């Protein structure tokens, strides 16, 4: 086994362990972790089975197999960005609604103080 393959396997494995540890400690929620787990497993599989990488890339018409890895990485980052954009949009809408509710509650409290005082 050559040094590059050993480094690829160790690197993929370490990233997988870090993601699992972040999930276990509650620092990464499961719904966000699925894409990371998928990417880690894909990297590990392609690191372990180089011929699979060659076969899949040739099947897709990609003549240089490492280019397929860049395509996968770009697709993964695009999916993560899209996912986080939807999460941010949802949180932004929730934040706006909460701000409006707080303003209404403050107004009610002020009106209640004015009536009682």
What does this structure look like?
The chain has 117 residues and is mainly α. It has one domain. The N and C termini lie far apart (83 Å). It is 88% helix and 0% strand. The chain has four helices and no strands.
Tags for this model:
117 residues, mainly alpha, elongated
Structural topology:
Layout: H1 3-24, H2 30-48, H3 50-59, H4 65-116
Helix pairs in contact: 1-2, 2-3, 2-4, 3-4
Question: End-to-end span in angstroms?
Answer: 83 Å
Shape: elongated
Low-pLDDT parts are none
Number of helical stretches of at least 4 residues: 4
The overall number of domains is: 1
Indicate the multimeric state: single chain
- Percentage of residues assigned to helices: over 70%
Tell me how many strands there are: 0
Query: What's the average pLDDT?
Result: 92
Quick overview of this protein structure:
With 117 residues, the chain is mainly alpha-helical. It has helices at residues 3-24, 30-48, 50-59, 65-116. The protein has one domain.
């Amino acid at each position: 086994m050559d040094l590059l393959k050993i480094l690829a396997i160790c690197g993929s494995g370490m990233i997988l362990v870090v993601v699992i540890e972040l999930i276990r400690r509650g620092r990464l929620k499961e719904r966000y972790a699925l894409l990371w787990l998928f990417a880690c497993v894909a990297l590990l599989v392609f690191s372990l089975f180089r011929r699979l990488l060659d076969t899949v890339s040739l099947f897709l018409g990609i003549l240089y197999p490492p280019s397929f890895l860049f395509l996968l990485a770009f697709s993964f980052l695009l999916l993560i960005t899209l996912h986080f954009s939807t999460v941010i949009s949802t949180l932004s809408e929730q934040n706006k609604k909460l701000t409006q509710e707080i303003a209404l509650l403050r107004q009610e409290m002020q009106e209640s103080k004015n009536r009682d005082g």
